């Protein structure tokens, strides 16, 4: 005999609330009211004959039994979603949205300029790109593909490295017209551009270049890496440029690397894909496309 299923809308509301840890967040995700989520959860509790959440004033906490229940039904929801997406994409029945999350500087300087090529190959796909520097395990929303530095290991995710990177000083050609840079010691006449989230880049490179005691003419610190690179493009000073993200600028002559060495090692860019989406044909296609773009 077929096993009876609980009310599916109630099950969906429970899964969303349990996964997000909030009735309010579940309501926003499902495009219903907070009261509707609460009502669906109560209906499921009545159907199961046991509470799912412990109510503590304004917050709710899963019971131990409900945590075990979520661990079993959560992957089932992911499997249904992936199967539906694959059917819609392969059969041309449904529009497909590919959710990607990556660092802002990487997205702005490397991914976005290349996205038109992917969309030309996959005209029925909409790429929804969000930027964030949060660790993979700290992201609240679910994504098909997360791009971060690595290689790292996260439970429930498969990882593939696709783009290597190193860092070295770069500046605009116009800057060198009136302030030449023949040796690292010549940086004493320049403005060194810093990024607040990467405070050791210059000190590490200067130590490697053998000028650890160097005092530049001045410094300028910006809060995002892409702002630092833009300041270098505008001739304001010299930045520590990530080779993968400035390759186009170097090739076109918008930026110049006055010193071929030393190169400062950096983490590679990697894709982190939820294990439930590893076989998704579109996820595989996007990751393969990233690797092809990186190889060129």
Quick synopsis:
The protein has 296 residues and is of the alpha/beta class. It has helices spanning 8-20, 23-30, 34-48, 64-91, 104-121, 173-178, 201-209, 225-233, 243-252, 281-295, and strands at residues 53-56, 59-62, 96-102, 125-131, 145-150, 157-163, 166-170, 191-195, 218-222, 238-242, 264-265, 268-274.
Care to describe what's here?
- The chain is of the alpha/beta class and 296 residues long.
- The protein has three domains: 8-87, Winged helix-like DNA-binding domain superfamily/Winged helix DNA-binding domain (Arc Repressor Mutant, subunit A, Orthogonal Bundle); 96-162 and 268-295, D-Maltodextrin-Binding Protein, domain 2, CATH 3.40.190.10; 166-265, D-Maltodextrin-Binding Protein, domain 2 (3-Layer(aba) Sandwich), CATH 3.40.190.
- It contains ten helices and twelve strands.
- A five-stranded mixed sheet has the order 4-3-5-12-6. The chain has a five-stranded mixed sheet with strand order 9-8-10-7-11. Strands 1-2 form a two-stranded antiparallel ribbon.
- β3 (96-102), α5 and β4 (125-131) form a beta-alpha-beta unit.
- α2 crosses α3.
- The protein is elongated and about 80 Å long.
- Keywords: DNA-binding, Transcription, Transcription regulation.
- Belongs to the LysR transcriptional regulatory family.
- GO terms for molecular function: DNA-binding transcription factor activity; sequence-specific DNA binding.
